[in-house]
Design a protein that fits this description.
This protein is α+β, with helices and mostly antiparallel strands. Among the domains are: 120 residues, Rossmann fold (3-Layer(aba) Sandwich); 62 residues, Dna Ligase, domain 1, CATH 3.30.1490. The chain is 30% helix and 22% strand. It is built from 10 helices and 12 strands. The chain has a 5-stranded antiparallel sheet with strand order 10-9-8-11-12, sandwiched between helices. α2 packs across α10. The two termini are 39 Å apart.
Length: 337
């Protein structure tokens, strides 16, 4: 599909002062640190001045003191991905990467995402919100079904409840699972089949899909451990699937990106029951701040599209400045306040 994003990234981004926001206190802290340090290293390799900020409760004061041209938001989970940090940066008037407040609030909430996408013809699994305490009385859906937190990322706290699983029937009150961490969970029918994902990046010419990857898991499903443990999952990029399924994944990912109002980059995850063809493809969620670690999917798809990691990082920064401070794209600060 060519390399419009890569060309945009290498078209003369001035030297900037970028604060890379990472870490925090969410379940995905360690992944965020890997993403943030990778981003910071890439920016420094291109001659940008970088301030690395491990998020704490004094983060606003630390950003104000740094006075960067732009913040690269490398946080994952709450509060960096749910609109909290976005609202803070909006109030401070500081440009930042990735999606804004409203989009972040909607996209991290799986039920709100369904309400935004399904009416526009994007297929997603059915299901409903259930109280965790009710799971100890009876199943909310016929087995097999999936239980997941309403607003966590990276498959944190996901459980697949099957007829022969070890959660019990009904689920045991003392059995380890997300019902011990969250008062409410989203229950969805389990969709058998293959794990696919498609990334989208914004460019000066508009959003572009980078491709489709299939995730082949050694055992179980694509949970947090499989996402971030080397050797647990095989990435097939590009996915060896029929061209019409590739096209449909890219179409759904682009439409989700636009409908939700995503900025910078996003990644939409799918389950595909290949026995059903196009009717077997379902969107699971759209991630507004995909990982940027060595095992992450967006950098992998960008490489296949012809973009080096640093090109991808600069493309995301460029998009943020086009939105918030286009004058800095022609001037920058040469790494100084």
């Amino acid at each position: 599909m060519g390399n419009p994003a890569g060309r945009a990234a290498m078209s003369g981004l001035p030297k900037l002062h970028v604060a890379v926001l990472m870490g925090g206190w969410a379940n995905e802290r360690e992944v965020s640190l890997m993403s943030g340090n990778g981003v910071a290293d890439a920016l420094e390799s291109r001659g940008h001045r970088v301030t690395r900020i491990d998020m704490d409760r004094q983060v606003a004061a630390r950003i104000a003191e740094a006075n960067p041209d732009v913040v690269f938001n490398a946080l994952h989970g709450v509060p960096g991905e749910d609109g909290s940090v976005q609202g803070m940066l909006d109030l401070m008037g500081v440009p930042y990467t990735h999606s804004g407040l409203a989009t972040s609030v909607i996209a991290i909430d799986k039920q709100l995402t369904k309400q935004a996408l399904v009416p526009h013809g994007i297929p997603m699994p059915g299901g409903r919100i259930v109280k965790s305490a009710d799971l100890f009385e009876k199943d909310p859906l016929p087995r097999p079904y999936v239980l997941k937190p309403v607003n966590e990322g990276s498959s944190v706290g996901v459980a697949i409840v099957t007829e022969g699983g070890n959660y019990g029937n009904p689920i045991g009150r003392d059995t380890p699972g997300p019902w011990q961490q969250f008062a409410e969970l989203l229950a969805e029918p389990f969709i058998k089949g293959r794990e696919l994902t498609a990334a989208v990046i914004d460019t000066a010419d508009g959003p572009r899909a980078l491709g489709v990857t299939e995730l082949i898991i050694d055992t179980g499903f694509y949970d947090y451990e499989h996402k971030y443990t080397d050797g647990k999952t095989t990435h097939v990029c590009p996915a060896q699937i029929p061209p019409e399924i590739t096209a449909l994944c890219e179409d759904y990912a682009l439409r989700a990106h636009k409908l939700l109002g995503c900025e910078g980059t996003s990644r939409t995850d799918f389950r595909w029951d290949d026995a059903l063809g196009e009717e077997g493809l379902f969107v699971l969620e759209t991630n507004t701040q995909p990982g940027m670690t060595p095992l992450s999917l967006v950098p992998e798809q960008a490489r296949h599209a012809g973009m080096e990691y640093a090109d991808l990082v600069e493309a995301i920064v460029s998009e943020a400045l086009r939105r918030y401070a286009p004058e800095k794209l022609s001037g920058g600060t040469d790494g100084h306040d």
